[in-house]
Give the backbone structure.
Amino acid sequence: MYSDLPADQLAAYRGSTRAPEDLDRFWADTLDEARQHPLSVEVTPYPSGLRTVELYDVVFPGFGGDPIRAWLRLPARSIRGDAPLPGVVQFVGYGGGRGDAHENLFWASAGFAHLQMDTRGQGAGWSKGATPDAAGSAGPQVPGVMTRGVLDPQTYYYRRLFTDAVRAVEAMRSLPEASAVQVDPARVAVLGQSQGGALALAASALCPDVAAVVAFVPFLSDFPRAVTVTDSYPYREIRDYLAVQRGQAETVMETLAYFDAVNLVPRSTAPALFSVALMDTTTPPSTVYAAYNNYAGPKELTVWPFNGHEAGAIEDDVAALAFLQKQLAG
């Protein structure tokens, strides 16, 4: 059922969070620190038995130089020829990892170089992962990652994961040097749903020259509203934490502001495709609208009135395919 703002208010809603004054400096320093580690990308062929898609196991340095795993999927050389390919970097929803190499062949089958980043410290919820979160936890936390290190933006989990996402884009662009794979660095898009959509938005803000963005029902947007209007996890992890750590609400919200999509996307300029589901209790519609309405680049929004967090499912994927074929055309 509908449990958020009326439709006319949703269309104009811009969020309730405020950007920290040092937001740009925080992220510039964070990425400068990450780039002190050379971008040495390891690309290893993965035996698949497939004829139309090639699979590769990829490792690249993320936050702190930590090794981050990914799958690279390509159309077979007999299909793709020698021309540079457009690239899609995909990020995974909450609790999931990069999954099995043989899964998610959609983008390679459509003619894209497809890099699916593993998610550090996740990957045991609904799809498997293989990348630990080496930094671990700083202080108490509710099970999950939403409150891991949440009392300080320097130690917060999503500082590491957003940095990994930026480095994944840089890794995709460096593939021609790392292997025989030919990817056009000017035609690299970012894509994801839920947490993956949030990472795509973060990457679009922190890598302002990505070619296109797809963010379906994006998570991590308008934290102050999200934690008070939904009883669903993962946002509820924050509420559960504050129900016990009663004196930490102001500190927690100050930390979360550095990672709120509403505060980041005014820096995003690439063409973007969003979706929102009006019966979604995981990412409440108002929080998605807040990200969409603050997004600075050209943008489109698909509204699913009778769907929850699954949003448009395969119909979103088909729409993303048409969108990226247009945006990344050679």
Observations:
- The longest strand covers residues 183-193.
- The CA atoms of residues 28 and 206 lie 9 Å apart.
- The mean pLDDT is 95.
